[in-house]
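Course exercise 7: structure representation. Students receive a sequence record and must write out the corresponding structure in token form. The form below is the worked example handed out in class, using Type IV pilus assembly PilZ (104 residues). Read each field label carefully; the graders check that inputs and outputs are placed in the correct fields and that the protein name is recorded exactly as given.

STUDENT ID: A-19
EXERCISE PROTEIN: Type IV pilus assembly PilZ
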Amino acid sequence: MSDIVEDLDERRTSLRLDMEAERIVLSWHDKEGVLNTDEGICIDLARHGVLIDYKQGFEMGELLTITFNPDNDKAHTVKGQVCRTTECNPNSFHIALQLIPTDK
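STUDENT ANSWER:
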């Protein structure tokens, strides 16, 4: 029975990469338009989305910039839109983002 439930819960059509709690840098503009930057943790990454852990929640639809490998020459930045925020405990929120394609 549990195998059936797991099959129903998994809706992803692309491979998910477990990031093993990799440190990332988040950037976003608050309601006053001020740019904020802070560190978070990447839980997993897929072709169309990313799941992060951060100390506060974000509103649905907020735009975030995520930088992987921020302290070296392999840094890579992506943009995403918040599609879900789940409070795990008072200082830990899981935030799911849909990645936004960027023109090169």
